[in-house]
Amino acid sequence: MDFVLLQLSGFAGAFIALVLDPLTYAYLIISVFLGITFGALPGLTATLAVTILTGFFGNKIPLDYSLIALLGAYVGAIYGGSYPSILLNIPGTAASAATAMDGHPLAKAGRGGEALGLTTTASFIGTLIGTFALLIFVWLLLLLSKNIASPEKALLALFGILLSGTLMSEDLVIKGWIAGLIGLAMAMVGLDPLLSEPRYTFGWSYMLSGFQVVPVLMGAFAVPQIIDGMRHMEMGQMVQLKGRILPNLSSIRRYMPTITRSGVIGTGVGSLPGVGEDVAGWVSYGVGKTVSKDGENFGKGSIEGLLSSETANNACIGGALIPLLVLGIPGSPPAAALMGAFKINNIIPGPTIDPEIILRVVAIMVLASFTMFVMGLFTARVFIKILRIPQVVFLPVVMVLTTIGSFSVGGGINDLYLMLGVGFVAYFMNLMKYPIAPLVIGVILGGLFDETFRRSLLISGGDLTVFASRPVAAILLMLNVTLVLSQIPVMKRALGRFRGKVI
């Protein structure tokens, strides 16, 4: 009980400090507005919004303001995808794909205002549910941090790379592992962290500092998205918005069980590393259709179907931050971009992170959700006008912002070359269905793995049993081995036969 009170008091302190700072509101309003805009414009994504703001704000302003900008954009973008889903039947982001199933039929029936009002409220409540779960899991961080040393850090970093590759692969898991190992290899470039000797620089002074995180983020996430958006312009006939947007409180009370259930599902799915908000939306939609008495009307304009999707994808944000902050493993692609921002601020997410940072993140998430709620209800018609901006106009602007953000990190032309090089490689990897997020995670976690793995061997005199002799290290080693073995076809078939016999 004392521990719970301590955490609540710490959260209250962080929350009050942010509320009393006038600059908090400026960063919140701007970042949430930009996030909703990126989510509302088809072809742009939450990952792109967080990535671009990382380039602009990553390490150029105090950490609290940087987190406000990035988390505000994250929350806003996941919610913003509901606008084109409802009015155009085109998901603004992958996270809002399930929203279109019932949102657009409702808009066509003249209930677009009602749909947007309920969606805004559900997204707000869902974000709070995920944030509350994040606050609860702070205790796990404190328990784990007592037994974490170099061997555990190395195995945890390797597990994060392998797990992200496993869960983010569309077809062959080996493709995700290859992408992660490419990122791991990129992290080895530059000065040796233990001996300070240059590695794989080929005499190029720019490479002494290794691959900069922001140009890699911009290249991996932004450039392929912009190219793909220019190639596949999606046009749709916008349905006129009718009805009042402010939701009826009696309607909110009526659908509260659906919202609560969907928030819990979204948080749970988000806490699975590498899954993401789109999966959370579809899983919650499927569960809602199964358990609802109105399941037969899902896809025909069901309010329950709309709320099932839209609550879950925003609740997934808090869920995705749990493995990021507690284990150092991003729960979604936007969380991977957020992890890059942590790194350039010299903060390594994981069991040894300062709990104060987690409490600040929770406080910012609460404020961001309130800002999104107010903006969504009272400025919805502004965002509807933004929907009319053609992609052919907006995407080049995004490319310029991406270039500026990448250039501003080091102020050299080589950062642009790196961004474009990584961008074109990532684009062709996408075409061949190689996931990009594991590559970025490999770059971010690779330095930690390299340093802690070699330090463990130096301390143990080259004895590899150091990774199995410590209890926590042995568990992590077993998890790594089990993860790899479980993806081998022979083992998969054996597990399938075993499950069949058990059932």
Helix content: over 70%
Distance between the amino and carboxyl termini: 42 Å
Structural class: mainly alpha
Along the chain, the helix and strand elements come as: HHHHHHHHHHEEHHHHHHHHHHHHHH
Q: Could you list the spans in which at least 5 consecutive residues all have pLDDT below 50? A: none
Strand order of the largest sheet: 1-2
| Computed CA radius of gyration, to the nearest angstrom | 23 Å
Question: Would you tell me the overall average pLDDT?
Answer: 80
The shape is globular
Strand content: under 5%
Largest sheet: 2 strands, antiparallel
Beta-strand segment tally: 2
Number of H/I helices: 24
What can be said about this structure in brief?
This protein is mainly alpha-helical and 503 residues long. The chain is built from 24 helices and two strands.
